[in-house]
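lol forgot to send this yesterday, sorry. struct tokens for the thing we talked abt
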């Protein structure tokens, strides 16, 4: 069976469990997941006996290529997506319609309710996103490919680092290399932060020269055909101070312990707690202010989350980042991040960029 069809059938069961007759999928990433369509400005209606993609003439040919056999409703020029939704829903006679509350605007929901007063609108959250958490073999292969792009690009970048380059130049060159190796581009705007600016977890690359500081934090990822990778490494570009050594080793120890705990049956909280306790015992607890990690797939940030109070149980097929960090204002920050697949018997680390302290030194 086509894997997109299998996903839609799974979703149909979830919609039925939610006591709805159909789900209007308005999140474009979810539309891609369910149909294979890679365009935008399109919805898909999942109902009990099938599905209908609502789109416009720009995508007619593309839809035929990417979604063969799926029923299409192509709205004419001048017809809004709202009008198309009303026409399709009216023709289908749906009385209990589930919608994606995290995607649909309140305005669109109210307009649909006003036009179809006999239909009940049921807000739902996470029906598709829950399915997306478990990757099939094809998805995992695409993530592996995205990791390959990221690692190859980083290897070239590291070999060509020069002290006079700015953070922005390093980020631009890294993203250029991603494309040269075949990636569609970067998963997100690359973070390149030298010295004290590395204390900003989401620093924007600036004009400071990387040779002016002792450390350089690089957080980057590649977008492959559809799926993403996400890594972070810290390079030692200057003096290896005792403080740098200590902080780096604490973060690496926290990450190593957390990765070792990844397996089916543990929760996102369990894994986060292991890393957080390791950092806290070293005296840096208040300097680790974000969750340990997140799911990775069609979106660079998706479920499941590895974070305090997150009860999500890890299952085979989930892919998560593990990225503890210590951020010391005025000094800098250390974050080490890898992409990890949950397997039936434990886990597999998909990323392989060296991360021992002695391997982080740029000679």
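and heres what i got for the seq, position by position
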């Amino acid at each position: 069976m086509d894997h997109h069809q299998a996903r839609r059938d799974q979703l149909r069961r979830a919609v039925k469990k939610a006591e709805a007759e159909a789900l209007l999928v308005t999140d474009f990433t979810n539309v891609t997941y369910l149909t294979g369509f890679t365009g935008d400005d399109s919805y898909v209606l999942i109902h009990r006996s099938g599905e209908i993609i609502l789109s416009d003439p720009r995508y007619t040919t593309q839809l035929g290529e990417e979604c063969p056999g799926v029923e299409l409703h192509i709205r004419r020029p001048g017809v809004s997506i709202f009008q198309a939704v009303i026409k399709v829903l009216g023709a289908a006679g749906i009385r209990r319609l589930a919608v994606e509350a995290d995607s649909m605007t309140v305005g669109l929901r109210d307009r649909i309710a006003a036009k179809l007063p006999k239909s009940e609108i049921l807000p739902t959250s996470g029906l598709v996103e829950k399915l997306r958490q478990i990757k099939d073999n094809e998805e995992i292969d695409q993530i592996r490919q995205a990791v390959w792009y990221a690692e190859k690009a980083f290897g070239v970048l590291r070999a060509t680092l020069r002290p006079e380059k700015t953070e922005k130049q390093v980020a631009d060159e890294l993203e250029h290399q991603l494309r040269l190796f075949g990636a569609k581009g970067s998963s997100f705007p690359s973070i390149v932060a030298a010295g004290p600016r590395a204390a900003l977890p989401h620093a924007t690359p600036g004009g400071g020269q990387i040779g002016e500081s002792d450390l350089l934090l690089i957080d980057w990822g590649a977008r492959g055909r559809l799926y993403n990778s996400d890594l972070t490494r810290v390079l030692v570009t200057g003096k290896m101070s005792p403080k740098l050594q200590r902080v780096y080793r604490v973060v690496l120890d926290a990450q190593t312990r957390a990765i070792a705990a990844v397996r089916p049956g543990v929760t996102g909280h369990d894994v986060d707690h292991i890393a957080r306790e390791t950092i806290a015992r070293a005296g840096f607890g208040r300097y680790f202010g974000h969750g340990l990690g997140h799911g990775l797939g069609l979106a660079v940030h998706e479920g499941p989350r590895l974070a305090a109070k997150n009860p999500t149980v890890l299952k085979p097929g989930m892919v998560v980042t593990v990225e503890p960090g210590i951020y010391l204002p005025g000094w800098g920050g250390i974050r080490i991040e890898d992409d990890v697949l949950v397997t039936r018997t434990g886990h597999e680390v998909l990323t392989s960029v060296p991360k021992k302290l002695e391997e982080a030194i740029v000679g």
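The longest helix spans residues 137-159. anyway ping me if u want another try
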